[in-house]
Amino acid sequence: MVHGFSAYGRLNILNKLASQEWDILVIGGGITGAGIALDASLRGLHVGLVEKADFGSGTSSRSTKLIHGGLRYLKRGELKLVQEVGRERAILHANAPHLVIPVPMLLPIYKGGSYGYWVSSMGLYIYDWLAGVKRKEHRKMLNQREVIKREPLLKKDGLKGGGLYYEYRTDDARLTLDIMKTAVQYGTKAVNYVEVTQFLYRAEQVIGIRVKDWLTGHVTDLYARKIVNAAGPWVDGIRKLDDSLRGKRLKLTKGVHLVVDHSKLPIQQSIYFDTPDGRMVFVIPRGKITYIGTTDTSYNSLVDQPRTTKQDRDYLIHAVNAMFPEVNLSPHDIQSHWAGLRPLIYIEGKNPSELSRKDEIFISNSGLITIAGGKLTGFRKMAEKIVDLVVNQIQSSVGRSLASCSTDKIVISGGERMNKNWKEGLIQRGQNRGINELTVREWIELYGTNILEIYERYDRIPKHTSERSLLAQLQYSIEEEMTMNAVDFLKLRTGWTYFHLSQAETKAECVLQLMADLLKWNTDEKHSQKKAVEQLFKQIHEFPDEVESL
Ligand code: FAD
Predict the structure, then answer these.
(1) H-type helices in 106-171, by residue range?
(2) pLDDT: is 52 or 424 the higher one?
(3) CB 3.0 to 4.6 Å from 81: which of 73, 114, 243, 325, for a disulfide?
């Protein structure tokens, strides 16, 4: 059970944040901010975190959802990075086994493509060795016949063979949330829907933040020894508030993913293939759907609302149809989609795909620490760097001895004892209660061993209550995951609007009703929640033309 992460206790947490000076206040509840909060709390620092929307609602729910092994770094000769990323992936798999899952990835090799057969064979071999890939996941080279047997829909013209290697799949929004929950378990005070609007200074040094609570409209001042800006694509906006946006800055690029029914693109495993314009795209099967991504285009519009345009959609459809000639995807086949912004560091003269995915730290004259760039995969190392820096700066004034980084050994909430035998046991326990097996399996994917908390709630709900399992799930989500809005439940907590749109549409009305009862929404609140859900579904069915630049 996570104490201190309940929607009911949200205002108390905000009051607590305002009641004392913190060692560190983190701006941003994406994977970077959550990772920093976890690391800092484990070392013994007093940590607060504010997120202006929902946890993980920024880039950290809009990625390709892969914990990469670093193959693309190998292509660029960044061997040390391949090693580091491989190690990180293994740590994450060990600590969050419910959310970081190995999946085979096929790299088809074509005449004139990005990777030749022997170069791929050697490259993947070196990659296995550098990244410390487990023996059973070592790469396997396939001849043309073997590739076609595995994936008969692939284009045959020019196909020379393929490489089969392993990537690790995740659910980025859930991973962010479970890291946040773990940070809270270790002492972090975190709130959503609280936005930093201003910095507070003494002797030109930043000593606090003014924040606005979007759910009540209240403005509060919070104080800390160190303030860390982990706002992803928004970091430059925050630096502007501090009047320190100078020198290096962000270059945002947009990446879009499309979701189709698995029967429309019935691949057996994930595939990473060349596009006609020489980029590379993933197609990834996930339950009843397959998702496709991504694009990589310069973005100069509103950071809050990246949209999937007709052009983005058509680009990906074209790429799939070129690689799978019999599939004939059309715009009508797109069930859902998402668009995210990569916060990359700007380098003059480089195009989006060439910009480094490395992270950088900026420290302003006022002492504001900003971390920009990076990847989902590298969040733990980024956090370690930032917290080392903070500890260095404040150790003498804290008056407590602080531990060194231990996030490599900490099991992430829901990952406790999550091995195969446990999984079977959890399924059995759900079935013994008469809960539909599909629901149980879905819950295990979403919550890992935290499913036990849902079972407890399920048992307390009277037997013949309609929608008993949805009610138990919602109670858990509200009491243990600070779920404030129906949209957040339908999108980030369950992933339904991405991966099971029909389920989201069928259950939306019921979710709205149950949440209204649980959170005691008044008529106005019910109305605005309903409108927000309708708006969400409307946006999923719309593809605007290219949005105007700012
Ligand atoms: P965010 O997740 O954006 O979090 C920043 C948070 O700050 C937001 O939630 C925002 O609401 C909050 N915030 C902003 N302003 C304020 C304010 N004033 N007050 C309070 N809060 C504020 N990486 C991988 O490792 N694997 C992949 O497969 C992968 N695929 C990707 C595909 C795409 C299309 C994209 C765009 C990125 C991908 N990445 C991938 C990169 C990865 O998703 C990002 O590096 C990572 O999610 C960034 O996390 P973050 O916490 O820094 O930013």
Answers:
(1) 117-130, 144-150
(2) 52
(3) 73
pLDDT at 149: 97
- Ligand 1 centroid from CA 232, angstroms: 5
pLDDT tens profile 386-412: 999 999 999 888 888 899 999 999 999
**Tell me, what's the pLDDT at 339?**
97
* Alpha-carbon gap, residue 527 to 530, rounded angstroms: 5
Provide the pLDDT for residue 83. 84
Q: Is 169 in the pocket of ligand 1 (CB under 6 A)?
A: no
Q: Is ligand 1 within 6 A of the CB of residue 485?
A: no
The CB of 473 under 6 Å from ligand 1? The reply is no
CA distance 40 to 51: 17
| Angle between the N-to-C axes of helices 468-481 and 451-460, in degrees from 0 to 180, rounded to the nearest 10 | 120
pLDDT digits (tens, 9 = 90+) for 88-97: 999 999 999 9
% of the chain surpassing 90 pLDDT: 82
Give, for ligand 1, the residue of 64, 82, 491 to mutate: max count of ligand atoms closer than 8 Å to Cβ: 64
Partners of 211 in the β-ladder: 196, 220
Q: Is 199 in the pocket of ligand 1 (CB under 6 A)?
A: no
More confident residue, 449 or 423: 449
Q: At what angle do helices 437-447 and 420-432 cross, to 10 degrees?
A: 140
Residue 85's pLDDT is: 86
Contacts of 226 (CB under 8 A, 6+ apart): 23, 24, 25, 367, 369, 390, 393, 394
Cβ of 53 less than 6 Å from ligand 1: yes
What is the distance between the alpha carbons of residues 340 and 440, in angstroms, rounded to a whole number?
30
Is the C-beta atom of 59 inside 6 A of ligand 1? yes
Span of 123-132, 165-174, 180-189 with lowest mean pLDDT: 123-132
* Closest ligand 1 atom number to CA of residue 28: 7
Sign of the dihedral defined by the CA atoms of residues 210, 212, 217, 221, in that order? negative
Q: Ramachandran region of residue 399, left (φ > 0), alpha (ψ -120 to 50) or beta?
A: left
State the alpha helices, DSSP H only, in 281-367.
310-323
Q: Which of 50, 55, 60, 270 to mutate to test the pocket of ligand 1 (most atoms within 8 A of CB)?
A: 60
**What is the average pLDDT across 484-493?**
98
131 lines ligand 1 (CB under 6 A): no
